[in-house]
Write a structure and sequence with these properties.
By secondary structure, the protein is of the alpha+beta class. The protein folds into 2 domains: about 40 residues, no CATH class; about 120 residues, 3-Layer(aba) Sandwich (GIY-YIG endonuclease), CATH 3.40.1440. It contains 7 helices and 5 strands. A 3-stranded antiparallel sheet has the order 4-3-5, with helices on both faces. Helix 3 packs across helix 4. The radius of gyration is 18 Å and the shape is globular. The relative contact order is 0.15.
Length: about 170
């Protein structure tokens, strides 16, 4: 029997993948009832929220996948500062500096992949998207070892069939 934290559409999708197997899936939640009853209105500026993001090199289209519990705009500046100072504390900034490229504007190079609060779900989403980029040798994330992951690989195979929800 497998246990999944219910996080929304993604969980339902994963459950459907296992219906044709002998694996039984049980759900659990760490969300108190107050979170379920509270409706959160998205902020007018998508960069004022937190979650998983992708920075894409404007030259080679290689990608850095990151996450933040802060505003996306704040995290963008945290990548931009090492680029300007050539300090190489950001893998993305290091790549651009090495290739003698310009940093670019936030609206041009930063893509929001998922809106989420900081937590375990955010970590899993980031690892999945790093795994996705690594599968095509397209990632700029340093220090991330990509280990075989059956669940991620199943999702990637199905993604090629346009079955992964946004």
């Amino acid at each position: 029997m497998g246990h999944l934290n219910y996080v929304g559409r993604e969980t339902s999708y994963i459950t459907n993948l296992f219906k044709k197997t002998e694996l039984n899936v049980a759900f659990r939640t760490k969300n108190p009832i107050g979170n379920l009853l509270t409706h959160i209105h998205p902020a007018p500026d998508k960069f004022s929220l937190s979650g998983v993001y992708k920075l894409t090199c404007p030259d080679c289209n290689r990608a850095y996948i990151g996450q933040t519990g802060s505003k996306f705009s704040t995290r963008f500046k945290e990548h931009e500062k090492p680029f300007r100072s050539h300090s190489h504390t950001s893998s993305f900034a290091k790549h651009l500096d090495k290739e003698a490229l310009s940093f670019g504007h936030m609206h041009d190079i930063m893509q929001i992949i998922h809106y989420r609060r900081k937590g375990a779900n955010l970590n899993t989403l980031q690892r999945f998207h790093i795994h996705t980029e690594a599968a095509t040798n397209n990632h700029l994330n340093e220090g991330h070892n990509i280990y075989p992951n059956t669940t991620f690989n199943t999702l990637l195979r199905n993604d090629r069939k346009n079955l992964i929800p946004n």
